[in-house]
Amino acid sequence: MKNWFFTLSLGALMGVAGSAQAVNWWDIGNLKTSPAQTLKESRELFKQQHPDLPFDKYALGAYAFSPELYSQYQEAMQFNPGDLTLSTGKELWEKPFKNGKTYASCYPNGGKGVAAHYPMYDNKTHQVETIATSINACRVANGEEPLKYGSADMIALQTYLTSLSNGMPVAVKVEGPGATKAFQEGKAYYFMKRGQLGFSCASCHMAYDGKYLRDQIISPLQGETAHFPTYRAAWSAVNTLQKRIQGCNKNVGAQPQPLESTDYRNVEYFMAYLSNGIKINVPGYRP
Protein backbone atom coordinates (compact mmCIF):
# COMPACT_ATOMS: atom_id res chain seq x y z
CA MET A 1 0.00 0.00 0.00
CA LYS A 2 1.34 3.41 -0.93
CA ASN A 3 2.41 5.48 2.06
CA TRP A 4 1.28 8.74 0.50
CA PHE A 5 -2.34 7.84 1.12
CA PHE A 6 -1.66 7.98 4.83
CA THR A 7 -0.31 11.50 4.60
CA LEU A 8 -3.70 12.95 3.73
CA SER A 9 -4.64 14.92 6.81
CA LEU A 10 -8.06 15.19 8.38
CA GLY A 11 -8.07 18.85 7.42
CA ALA A 12 -7.53 17.94 3.77
CA LEU A 13 -10.37 15.46 3.90
CA MET A 14 -12.64 18.12 5.33
CA GLY A 15 -11.59 20.39 2.49
CA VAL A 16 -12.61 17.74 -0.02
CA ALA A 17 -15.99 17.41 1.63
CA GLY A 18 -16.54 21.16 1.59
CA SER A 19 -15.57 21.36 -2.07
CA ALA A 20 -17.90 18.45 -2.81
CA GLN A 21 -20.86 20.30 -1.35
CA ALA A 22 -20.04 23.39 -3.40
CA VAL A 23 -19.87 21.58 -6.74
CA ASN A 24 -22.12 18.64 -5.90
CA TRP A 25 -19.68 16.01 -7.11
CA TRP A 26 -21.35 13.38 -4.95
CA ASP A 27 -24.72 14.03 -6.60
CA ILE A 28 -23.29 12.90 -9.93
CA GLY A 29 -23.27 9.39 -8.48
CA ASN A 30 -27.09 9.37 -8.27
CA LEU A 31 -28.14 6.12 -9.97
CA LYS A 32 -31.50 7.63 -10.97
CA THR A 33 -29.75 10.15 -13.21
CA SER A 34 -29.58 9.19 -16.91
CA PRO A 35 -26.23 8.73 -18.66
CA ALA A 36 -26.79 11.90 -20.69
CA GLN A 37 -27.60 13.93 -17.58
CA THR A 38 -24.63 12.41 -15.76
CA LEU A 39 -22.36 13.52 -18.59
CA LYS A 40 -23.85 17.02 -18.52
CA GLU A 41 -23.41 17.36 -14.76
CA SER A 42 -19.88 15.99 -14.97
CA ARG A 43 -18.95 18.60 -17.58
CA GLU A 44 -20.41 21.33 -15.38
CA LEU A 45 -18.50 20.02 -12.37
CA PHE A 46 -15.09 20.15 -14.02
CA LYS A 47 -15.83 23.52 -15.57
CA GLN A 48 -16.67 24.90 -12.12
CA GLN A 49 -13.59 23.38 -10.53
CA HIS A 50 -11.19 24.44 -13.29
CA PRO A 51 -12.81 27.40 -15.09
CA ASP A 52 -9.58 28.40 -16.88
CA LEU A 53 -8.72 24.94 -18.19
CA PRO A 54 -9.75 24.39 -21.84
CA PHE A 55 -11.71 21.21 -22.47
CA ASP A 56 -9.09 19.67 -24.77
CA LYS A 57 -6.41 20.02 -22.07
CA TYR A 58 -8.08 17.29 -20.03
CA ALA A 59 -6.32 14.87 -22.38
CA LEU A 60 -3.15 15.71 -20.43
CA GLY A 61 -4.48 14.48 -17.10
CA ALA A 62 -2.38 15.68 -14.17
CA TYR A 63 0.06 17.36 -16.57
CA ALA A 64 -2.58 19.99 -17.31
CA PHE A 65 -2.16 21.45 -13.82
CA SER A 66 1.60 21.99 -13.75
CA PRO A 67 3.70 23.80 -16.41
CA GLU A 68 6.82 22.13 -14.99
CA LEU A 69 5.33 18.64 -15.26
CA TYR A 70 3.96 19.44 -18.72
CA SER A 71 7.45 20.37 -19.87
CA GLN A 72 8.71 17.02 -18.60
CA TYR A 73 5.82 15.30 -20.37
CA GLN A 74 6.71 16.95 -23.70
CA GLU A 75 10.29 15.75 -23.38
CA ALA A 76 9.19 12.23 -22.46
CA MET A 77 6.79 11.99 -25.40
CA GLN A 78 9.63 12.67 -27.85
CA PHE A 79 11.15 9.32 -26.88
CA ASN A 80 8.24 7.53 -25.25
CA PRO A 81 9.40 4.06 -24.09
CA GLY A 82 5.84 2.94 -24.80
CA ASP A 83 6.57 3.12 -28.52
CA LEU A 84 8.43 -0.19 -28.19
CA THR A 85 5.20 -1.83 -27.05
CA LEU A 86 3.39 -0.10 -29.90
CA SER A 87 5.85 -1.56 -32.42
CA THR A 88 5.40 -5.04 -30.96
CA GLY A 89 1.65 -4.64 -31.19
CA LYS A 90 1.90 -3.69 -34.86
CA GLU A 91 3.94 -6.82 -35.60
CA LEU A 92 1.41 -9.03 -33.81
CA TRP A 93 -1.49 -7.26 -35.52
CA GLU A 94 -0.08 -7.93 -38.97
CA LYS A 95 1.02 -11.54 -38.31
CA PRO A 96 -1.47 -13.89 -40.01
CA PHE A 97 -3.47 -16.47 -38.07
CA LYS A 98 -3.21 -20.09 -39.11
CA ASN A 99 -6.14 -19.51 -41.48
CA GLY A 100 -4.30 -16.68 -43.22
CA LYS A 101 -6.44 -13.86 -41.85
CA THR A 102 -5.25 -11.09 -39.53
CA TYR A 103 -6.79 -9.10 -36.69
CA ALA A 104 -7.76 -6.39 -39.17
CA SER A 105 -10.33 -8.78 -40.68
CA CYS A 106 -12.36 -8.63 -37.47
CA TYR A 107 -12.91 -4.86 -37.44
CA PRO A 108 -14.53 -2.28 -39.69
CA ASN A 109 -11.98 -0.34 -41.77
CA GLY A 110 -9.26 -2.69 -40.61
CA GLY A 111 -9.51 -1.34 -37.06
CA LYS A 112 -8.97 2.33 -37.89
CA GLY A 113 -11.12 4.51 -35.66
CA VAL A 114 -12.91 1.66 -33.87
CA ALA A 115 -11.25 2.14 -30.47
CA ALA A 116 -12.91 5.55 -30.14
CA HIS A 117 -16.20 3.69 -29.66
CA TYR A 118 -14.95 1.21 -27.03
CA PRO A 119 -16.01 0.01 -24.55
CA MET A 120 -19.39 -0.75 -26.08
CA TYR A 121 -22.43 -2.67 -24.93
CA ASP A 122 -23.13 -5.81 -26.94
CA ASN A 123 -26.82 -6.63 -27.10
CA LYS A 124 -26.00 -10.20 -28.16
CA THR A 125 -23.77 -11.06 -25.20
CA HIS A 126 -25.61 -8.67 -22.86
CA GLN A 127 -22.37 -7.29 -21.49
CA VAL A 128 -19.83 -4.57 -22.03
CA GLU A 129 -17.15 -5.48 -24.54
CA THR A 130 -13.73 -3.86 -24.28
CA ILE A 131 -10.82 -3.68 -26.71
CA ALA A 132 -9.27 -6.64 -24.87
CA THR A 133 -12.38 -8.85 -25.03
CA SER A 134 -12.83 -7.93 -28.71
CA ILE A 135 -9.27 -9.05 -29.46
CA ASN A 136 -9.87 -12.42 -27.84
CA ALA A 137 -13.20 -12.76 -29.63
CA CYS A 138 -11.34 -12.15 -32.89
CA ARG A 139 -8.79 -14.81 -32.03
CA VAL A 140 -11.43 -17.40 -31.16
CA ALA A 141 -13.39 -16.62 -34.34
CA ASN A 142 -10.22 -17.38 -36.30
CA GLY A 143 -9.45 -20.64 -34.53
CA GLU A 144 -6.84 -19.27 -32.13
CA GLU A 145 -6.61 -19.61 -28.36
CA PRO A 146 -7.51 -16.49 -26.36
CA LEU A 147 -4.68 -14.50 -24.84
CA LYS A 148 -4.32 -14.01 -21.10
CA TYR A 149 -5.54 -10.58 -20.05
CA GLY A 150 -2.61 -8.51 -18.87
CA SER A 151 -0.09 -10.55 -20.86
CA ALA A 152 2.59 -8.74 -22.85
CA ASP A 153 1.05 -9.73 -26.20
CA MET A 154 -2.45 -8.66 -25.16
CA ILE A 155 -1.23 -5.27 -23.90
CA ALA A 156 0.76 -4.73 -27.11
CA LEU A 157 -2.28 -5.53 -29.24
CA GLN A 158 -4.54 -3.29 -27.11
CA THR A 159 -2.01 -0.49 -27.51
CA TYR A 160 -1.73 -0.82 -31.28
CA LEU A 161 -5.47 -1.17 -31.93
CA THR A 162 -6.21 1.85 -29.75
CA SER A 163 -3.49 3.85 -31.47
CA LEU A 164 -5.39 3.44 -34.75
CA SER A 165 -7.83 5.97 -33.25
CA ASN A 166 -5.18 8.50 -32.22
CA GLY A 167 -6.38 12.06 -32.76
CA MET A 168 -10.03 10.99 -32.73
CA PRO A 169 -12.34 11.99 -29.87
CA VAL A 170 -13.71 9.35 -27.54
CA ALA A 171 -17.24 8.61 -28.78
CA VAL A 172 -18.75 5.95 -26.53
CA LYS A 173 -22.51 5.39 -26.73
CA VAL A 174 -24.94 4.31 -24.01
CA GLU A 175 -28.18 3.32 -25.70
CA GLY A 176 -30.91 0.95 -24.54
CA PRO A 177 -31.82 -0.59 -21.19
CA GLY A 178 -28.95 -3.09 -21.09
CA ALA A 179 -26.32 -0.47 -21.82
CA THR A 180 -27.87 1.93 -19.30
CA LYS A 181 -27.85 -0.76 -16.62
CA ALA A 182 -24.16 -1.50 -17.25
CA PHE A 183 -23.36 2.22 -17.18
CA GLN A 184 -25.16 2.68 -13.86
CA GLU A 185 -23.37 -0.32 -12.38
CA GLY A 186 -20.08 1.22 -13.49
CA LYS A 187 -21.11 4.51 -11.90
CA ALA A 188 -22.00 2.73 -8.66
CA TYR A 189 -18.57 1.08 -8.61
CA TYR A 190 -16.85 4.42 -9.22
CA PHE A 191 -18.63 6.10 -6.31
CA MET A 192 -18.55 3.17 -3.87
CA LYS A 193 -16.21 3.60 -0.90
CA ARG A 194 -14.00 0.58 -0.36
CA GLY A 195 -10.96 -0.73 1.42
CA GLN A 196 -9.43 0.12 4.76
CA LEU A 197 -9.19 3.81 3.82
CA GLY A 198 -12.81 4.10 2.71
CA PHE A 199 -11.97 5.86 -0.56
CA SER A 200 -13.97 5.76 -3.76
CA CYS A 201 -12.59 6.48 -7.24
CA ALA A 202 -14.65 9.68 -7.20
CA SER A 203 -13.14 10.76 -3.85
CA CYS A 204 -9.88 11.47 -5.69
CA HIS A 205 -10.65 11.91 -9.38
CA MET A 206 -13.76 14.08 -9.05
CA ALA A 207 -13.45 15.75 -5.64
CA TYR A 208 -9.68 16.16 -5.41
CA ASP A 209 -8.49 16.25 -9.03
CA GLY A 210 -5.87 18.84 -9.90
CA LYS A 211 -4.66 18.99 -6.30
CA TYR A 212 -1.60 17.45 -4.69
CA LEU A 213 -1.71 14.44 -2.43
CA ARG A 214 1.83 14.54 -1.06
CA ASP A 215 3.99 14.67 -4.22
CA GLN A 216 1.42 13.58 -6.79
CA ILE A 217 -1.23 15.59 -8.65
CA ILE A 218 -4.50 13.71 -8.91
CA SER A 219 -5.79 13.44 -12.48
CA PRO A 220 -9.43 14.22 -13.30
CA LEU A 221 -11.91 11.58 -14.43
CA GLN A 222 -12.66 13.61 -17.55
CA GLY A 223 -10.18 12.46 -20.19
CA GLU A 224 -8.77 9.65 -18.03
CA THR A 225 -9.39 6.87 -20.55
CA ALA A 226 -8.03 8.71 -23.60
CA HIS A 227 -4.34 7.95 -22.95
CA PHE A 228 -4.58 4.27 -21.99
CA PRO A 229 -2.80 1.96 -22.56
CA THR A 230 -0.05 4.18 -21.21
CA TYR A 231 3.59 3.95 -20.23
CA ARG A 232 4.09 4.68 -16.53
CA ALA A 233 7.54 5.34 -15.14
CA ALA A 234 6.40 3.67 -11.91
CA TRP A 235 5.73 0.48 -13.87
CA SER A 236 8.62 0.83 -16.34
CA ALA A 237 6.12 -0.60 -18.79
CA VAL A 238 2.96 0.02 -20.73
CA ASN A 239 -0.21 -1.14 -19.08
CA THR A 240 -3.96 -0.69 -19.22
CA LEU A 241 -6.60 1.32 -17.42
CA GLN A 242 -7.87 -1.78 -15.66
CA LYS A 243 -4.37 -2.51 -14.39
CA ARG A 244 -4.34 1.00 -12.95
CA ILE A 245 -7.71 0.35 -11.30
CA GLN A 246 -6.26 -2.78 -9.72
CA GLY A 247 -3.43 -0.66 -8.33
CA CYS A 248 -5.85 1.90 -6.92
CA ASN A 249 -7.80 -0.88 -5.23
CA LYS A 250 -4.61 -2.07 -3.56
CA ASN A 251 -3.68 1.48 -2.53
CA VAL A 252 -6.86 1.91 -0.52
CA GLY A 253 -6.67 -1.56 1.00
CA ALA A 254 -9.35 -3.16 -1.17
CA GLN A 255 -9.19 -6.52 -2.90
CA PRO A 256 -8.54 -6.02 -6.64
CA GLN A 257 -10.62 -7.94 -9.14
CA PRO A 258 -9.36 -9.95 -12.14
CA LEU A 259 -8.76 -7.99 -15.32
CA GLU A 260 -11.88 -7.84 -17.52
CA SER A 261 -14.20 -8.72 -14.65
CA THR A 262 -17.77 -7.46 -15.06
CA ASP A 263 -17.20 -4.64 -12.57
CA TYR A 264 -14.00 -3.49 -14.26
CA ARG A 265 -15.57 -3.53 -17.71
CA ASN A 266 -18.58 -1.60 -16.46
CA VAL A 267 -16.53 1.04 -14.66
CA GLU A 268 -14.33 1.47 -17.74
CA TYR A 269 -17.54 1.97 -19.75
CA PHE A 270 -18.69 4.66 -17.33
CA MET A 271 -15.31 6.39 -17.35
CA ALA A 272 -15.00 6.34 -21.13
CA TYR A 273 -18.48 7.81 -21.63
CA LEU A 274 -17.59 10.71 -19.32
CA SER A 275 -14.43 11.23 -21.40
CA ASN A 276 -16.38 11.64 -24.64
CA GLY A 277 -14.93 14.37 -26.82
CA ILE A 278 -11.37 14.06 -25.52
CA LYS A 279 -8.93 13.05 -28.26
CA ILE A 280 -7.15 9.71 -27.97
CA ASN A 281 -3.34 9.70 -27.67
CA VAL A 282 -1.91 6.21 -27.15
CA PRO A 283 0.45 5.13 -25.76
CA GLY A 284 0.38 7.89 -23.23
CA TYR A 285 3.08 8.66 -20.69
CA ARG A 286 2.55 9.09 -16.98
CA PRO A 287 4.87 9.30 -13.92
TrEMBL record:
Swiss-Prot/TrEMBL catalytic activity: S-sulfanyl-L-cysteinyl-[SoxY protein] + thiosulfate + 2 Fe(III)-[cytochrome c] = S-(2-sulfodisulfanyl)-L-cysteinyl-[SoxY protein] + 2 Fe(II)-[cytochrome c] + 2 H(+); L-cysteinyl-[SoxY protein] + thiosulfate + 2 Fe(III)-[cytochrome c] = S-sulfosulfanyl-L-cysteinyl-[SoxY protein] + 2 Fe(II)-[cytochrome c] + 2 H(+)
Keyword Transport: yes
UniProt binding sites for substrate: 244
PROSITE patterns, per the entry: CYTC
Molecular function as annotated in GO: electron transfer activity; heme binding; metal ion binding; oxidoreductase activity, acting on a sulfur group of donors, cytochrome as acceptor; transferase activity
Keywords: Electron transport, Heme, Iron, Metal-binding, Periplasm, Signal, Transferase, Transport
Active site (record annotation): 248 (cysteine persulfide intermediate)
Cytochrome c domain segment(s): 181-287
Transmembrane region(s): none
Entry-linked InterPro entries: Cyt_c-like_dom, Cyt_c-like_dom_sf, SoxA
Residues where heme c 1 binds: 106, 138
Subcellular location: Periplasm
Pfam families assigned to the protein according to its UniProt record, in alphabetical order: SoxA-TsdA_cyt-c
Cofactor (UniProt): heme
Cofactor note: Binds 2 heme groups per subunit.
Record GO biological process: sulfur oxidation
EC code: 2.8.5.2
Signal peptide per UniProt: 1-22
Top-level EC class: transferase
Similarity comment: family membership: Belongs to the SoxA family.
Subunit structure: Heterodimer of SoxA and SoxX.
Protein name: SoxAX cytochrome complex subunit A
Organism whose genome encodes this protein: Acidithiobacillus caldus (strain SM-1)
